[in-house]
Design goal:
The complex is a heterodimer of chains A (96) and B (176). Helices cover 51% and strands 16% of the residues of chain A. Chain A has 96 residues and is an alpha+beta fold. Chain A has a two-stranded antiparallel sheet. The longest helix of chain A has 18 residues. With 176 residues, chain B is mainly α. Chain B has a 3-stranded antiparallel beta sheet with strand order 1-3-2. The longest helix of chain B is centred in the last third of the chain and has 23 residues. The chains are: A alpha+beta (96), B mainly alpha (176).
Chain lengths: 96, 176
């Protein structure tokens, strides 16, 4: 979801995967990315819209993803929880 | 004003090099330039010896060549373009359109979730072409495509708990 936010409004399969790879070094497959996106979409955290078709995609349309209001609230809550759990942990600088 | 250049000796046999003729657009551009600068004479381009003759009216001296209304930079660019057109262009192999491996693409089309099928196939193809543009050989790009397809399908297959018989059933449904 953070990768979608970073790529907004140009978040689609390839750009999301490249963003994750650039930030974390983990190379997920397109199928894995879409499997996660499908689950997020089912929960109403992200929405998708069809974009333009380009020649390099064999004339197929891109599918752009954006975070919904519910997704933003959930993401904020999740980040707050992570921060709260990290705060005060002995040796926190080691996991900062 | 006579601007003469000599062609560099070209060791390539004439039969194997391509020297494109001056395009009509280039001739039109040069002709329009002479008109717009009130030049009454012509611009003649001799393709054989690459001599470019630009003759100014008698009342316009050489200094007028670089002063308004003549746009010297445009004229220089036109001459440069004209000469560049006469540069021998090395023969390059025609561009070939490479396509992703058909079998792998068919597998994705069959097994990817219906809702995101077109997007997944499109993303995989975009990655394939991006790899080709990065200078990967066709074989390497195709191998990476197949690996990407396998890695993309495994989560789907696992999520559906298809198993080998499920896969065969899906393939059978699409074939018949």
């Amino acid at each position: 979801m953070l990768a979608i936010l970073r790529q907004n409004p140009n978040a689609y399969g390839v750009s999301i995967r490249d963003e994750i790879k650039a930030r974390t070094g983990k190379d997920y497959s397109i199928g894995t990315i879409y499997a996660a996106l499908e689950r997020l979409e089912e929960r109403g955290y992200v929405s998708s819209r069809e974009g333009e078709a380009t020649a390099v995609r064999g004339g197929r349309r891109k599918l752009y993803f954006t975070i919904t209001g519910a997704g933003q609230r959930s993401l904020s809550a999740s980040l707050r929880t992570t921060d709260a759990l990290r705060r005060g942990v002995p040796g926190a600088e080691a996991i900062a | 004003v006579k601007h003469k250049t000599s062609r560099r000796p070209d060791p390539t046999p004439a039969s194997t090099r391509r020297v494109p003729a001056l395009s009509n657009a280039m001739i039109t551009k040069l002709a329009a330039m002479t008109r717009s600068t009130m030049m009454q004479t012509d611009v003649a381009v001799y393709q054989d010896d690459l001599t470019i003759n630009i003759t100014l009216p008698d009342e316009m001296d050489v200094n007028g060549f670089s002063s308004p209304p003549m746009d010297n930079s445009d004229l220089s660019q036109a001459i440069f373009d004209a000469m560049r057109w006469h540069e021998p262009i090395p023969d390059v192999p025609p561009k070939t359109t490479f396509e992703p491996p058909a079998l792998a693409e068919s597998l994705v089309s069959l097994l990817a979730p219906k809702r995101h099928r077109a997007a997944i196939v499109g993303d995989l193809e975009e990655t394939f072409r991006s790899n080709l543009q990065r200078g990967f050989t066709k074989q390497r790009a195709a191998r990476l495509y197949c690996v990407d397809v396998a890695r993309s399908l495994l989560p789907q297959v696992w999520a559906k708990r298809l198993g080998i018989f499920g896969l065969i059933a899906i393939l059978w449904r699409h074939v018949h």
